[in-house]
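Consortium newsletter contribution from the modelling node. Members have asked for a concrete example of what our holo predictions look like. Here is one, prepared for the adenosine-5'-triphosphate complex that several groups have been discussing at recent meetings.
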Amino acid sequence: MVVSKRLLIVEDDPGLQSQMRWCFSDELEVSVASDRESALATLRRMEPEVVTLDLGLPPDPGGASEGFQLLEDILRLSPLTKVIVVTGREDKENAVRAIGMGAADFYQKPLDADILTFVVNRAFRLAELEKENRHLGEHKNGSSIKGIVAASPQMMSICRTIEKIAPTDATTLITGETGTGKELLARGLHDLSQRADKPFAAINCAAIPENLLESELFGFEKGSFTGATQSKKGKIESANGGTLFLDEIGDMPMALQVKLLRFLQERVIDRVGSVNTIPVDVRVVCATHRNVRELIDSGDFREDLYYRISEITIDVPALRDREGDTLVIAQYLLKSLGKQMDRPNLTLTEDAIRAINSYAWPGNVREMINKVKRASIMAEGKRVTASDLELTEDNEGQDHQLNLRQVRENAERAAILQALQSCNFNMAQASRLLGITRPTLYNLTDKYRIKTSPESTNA
Ligand SMILES: Nc1ncnc2c1ncn2[C@@H]1O[C@H](COP(=O)(O)OP(=O)(O)OP(=O)(O)O)[C@@H](O)[C@H]1O
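And here is the predicted structure:
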């Protein structure tokens, strides 16, 4: 299908209306409005990329007050629309004022078809370019750290910090909610350091039982406990020359905190069951989702250890608090996971985009990976909807929607989903509930790509 370019001409003079229509109707979809009210109605319905706006409109055809009011309305309702104001020959002042308010261009009467066509085409090109830029922006990744997709100022600043501290040996504490990318950043620190070709050894202090954690970290000598049939290096030793990543450090038992502190001070370890000390050269990076200050206050974390591990601290914001990251990461995941699932070229529907932006993402990027993975399996066709992602749409954003069609479609979609779910996907019952015929319901489920069986949708 060829997508047509849409032009709205706001002009109260019937003679000029037909001349302008004649200039453009071969190549563009053209609508004409002669006053503010009908112009706004057409704007909502037609969603034109470009509007030509005669400032002298009734009830003030000799002045410009109505035209300026309409310009303001258009820019508020549809800020991406390019408005070309049309003024009288001597009316430079109003043209300048309109540009100052946000009009894209101006054109002075009398009408010259060639110049007007040039100005209008230029506005369409501008609209097109801006659209492309927005599209590129959505796919932009400003992060220099492998695996980290980001566009928000907060993450950009974190990436810059990582780049700066990577060459040093400063112990670094990375805090933030679960799934925010703490481990990825720790790996980034290692990869950008001079230790990059040496090991990166990670251990999750919360996942290993207390009695095993000591020997996991420090290693043990043969015969030091039942089952120790041979000596084994611990994580610290095996990271020698490289980076040791202690994940969930806030969960480290007190007794081990003392031993870790000693290691950080003296840079030597002794394996469990050994009296010999072994020097180890590692850079230590720790992470936790817990509030270490509170742990110190409650007596669960040693303050002296905290100062040792936090020469530098990096607080990774939750996904919902990053400006602009959510959609960029979702698009990236859709592309990469879609490819893995043999479903390339999947795209997000408008409702999916809105839902992604308004959801709180308590599990952060990890939760998003799960949802996008599911959606790349469940999506019918190439379009991924909010329900494929198991996200119900937030209605708040609807206030800002351009027109009634979008609001109506969203409401219609939500009502159909609800009806289907409440009668366990019995189409006859659901259509009775909705007060429509079964064929109409089938048409609508097709239109909105709503799945019609319980196993393929979300409760
Ligand atoms: N900015 C990002 N871009 C792309 N993928 C990311 C990003 N942040 C995190 N991820 C991915 O999300 C998942 C969780 O990240 P990671 O394990 O680093 O989080 P974490 O904060 O260490 O979590 P936890 O506290 O639960 O251990 C990983 O699969 C990681 O690759």
